[in-house]
Amino acid sequence: ELEIPGYSCEDHFEELDTVLHSWDILAEILESGATDGILCDLGMPVIYNSVQYNCRVVCLDKKIMLIRPKMHLANYGNYREERWFVPWQKGYTTEEFTLPDRIQRIVGQKATQFGIGIIKTADTEIGFEICEELWTLKPPLQDQCLDGAEIIVNSSGSHHQLRKLNARVALMADASSRHGCVYMYSNFQGCDGTRLYFDGSARILKNGRTVAAASQFSLKDVEVITANINLKDIASYRSVSKATLKTAAQSKLFPRACIEDYRITRDIFPERESDAIVDEYSSPSEEIALGPACWLWDYLRRSGASGYLLPLSGGVDSASVATIIGSMTNLVLKAIEEGDEQVISDVKKVTRSEELPKTPKELANKLLYTVYMGTVNSSAETRLRAKALAEEVGANHREVTIDRIVEGIKATYTDLTGAEPKFKAHGGNDYREDLALQNIQARSRMTFAYMLAQLLPPSSFLLVLGSGNLDEGLRGYLTKYDCSSADVNPIGGICKVDLQKFLAWAVENLGYTSLKGIYEAPPTAELRPLSDGAKVVQTDEDEMGMTYKELGWFGKLRKIDKSGPVTMYQKLVNAWTHLSPTTVADKVKHFFRTYSINRHKMTTITPAYHCEAYGNDDNRFDHRQFLYNVAWDRQFAEIDKLSAVYESKLAQSDPSKV
Fold first, then answer.
1. Whole-prediction pTM value?
2. How do residues 97-136 score in pLDDT, each as one tens digit?
3. Does the pLDDT of residue 653 top 90, yes or no?
4. Which of 136, 370, 442, 595 makes a 20 to 30 Å CA pair with 74?
5. Using an 8 Å Cβ cutoff, are 437 and 421 in contact?
6. Who's near 40: CB < 8 A, 6+ residues apart?
7. Which residues are catalytic, by number?
8. 637: which residues sit within 8 A by CB, 6+ positions away?
9. CA dihedral sign of residues 573, 577, 583, 587
10. Gap between the terminal Cα atoms of the chain
11. Phi and psi, residue 64, nearest 5°
12. pLDDT for the residue numbered 525
């Protein structure tokens, strides 16, 4: 979809230059002979009668046969197509479109058809869908197939999201099965300059069964799939349903763009037909290992940087990021071994060396710099875990104590105010002092990380990797401008529970055995003083007042189910039967109170790989205010009323549970 300019041009689609350059590229394609003997379906913006449409341009032998505008625009979640385009609203009609002068000179035609039509060749008919149209209540292919189209082509711009691919393929299979057709689906693959990773997975289906499939995650710039299909199978399949044939006999006629001397089929089938294959799907942990890894490689090779810098704390989040980089180096080495010329060229460019690495660890040592920035409040366990993981991945690892930076800030504060802030454990009596002392540790790490990123590599610069997870962003359990602030964050759209499962997967599949000690340890920020026995006394879940599993519930109900405080309580009081209605009420109110207090942090959050349907990215995906009435007076009062009713009913039905 829109592959000539790139789907993610976004507000650049408002610039006339984008449209003009798209016509220029189309002219180059036509002049190159790429369409000679091949029916090509290309995507670009087209302005017709002063209205800009998201279009497919169908070409053959240097001729433009049809310009097909999109009928149903994606305008939810990450998509804003109605910001730039208008849907075609004239139904199954075509009108005459006068081609630009340069195109006229190349193709030798003044005009072509613009609208919703079918391509008719000497032996078959071809219909078109564009991405979102497959997901609508009544996809265009229904009427196109009833009117004789045997092949449906869908050009898509669909991004990766955990556990989403099977739903996408199911839609294709259902459409192809119910209507009897060949369904050809193509999609972007890679980072297109935004938080999204487009996950490929091109498909060719025949009568509901997949006969060819491309990879979901790959470092290749282009991936082509083909299949040998006997189109007679389409007519045979359709003939079984007499009810469908009767409906087809009454169907509306689509305009045709006729290519009478062009044939899709051959009289003698040259090769055996493609067999049906079983669709295979990655587990969520595999998706986390591969999707963000491919996204990070695309980002790195296009940025001009010579690698990444990661503050590695020895906890689950930063360990997950390091593991994803390890997965990335495995993918890159595999591509080098397979002779991928583009990847080989990119590796030489990024590493500033003509010598190619021989192992993933050798590559990681050039691309990934990790640093453990400890303080007096850091434990020996996390330092050792960070070091062990860095060695397994192959990172260029360093350790440093930043107490002098922290003490310098404290001393400067004392010089200014005459007061000395203290932790509560050291005799302080103001919680604000305790929090401020935690925050200056966290913010010092961010500042020092950027200094290292500028000066550590022998040339160029490093991109700083963030490691804040989705749940902590939702709850606001992070310091503004700490190590959650970075250039990019591959895990900002992934929940803590999935990250813990991912690390367990990586122990078995990537061989990073040190991860076991990391994901089994209670998550902690290590910003407060250790106990007398040098043990960690601060844990994330205790400080948050909720578990990460509970945060997942809150996130899904808030975003996916569109639940406000009252509706969320009504749902959870029935789902969390292990808790009393009053306890559930307290948890819901605590979540919304802390969420609203900390919502401002999402306005400056690092661009993160989008991975979950309940993402909280304020800049793109989750548009909400960041200044709230944190008391939620009306909502919380209603929750209290409901809680009293539930407690009363519970007491009447089972007094032992009260």
1. 0.93
2. 999 999 999 999 999 999 999 999 999 999 999 999 999 9
3. no
4. 595
5. yes
6. 29, 34, 58, 59, 60
7. 1, 70, 131, 313
8. none
9. negative
10. 58
11. -100, 115
12. 74
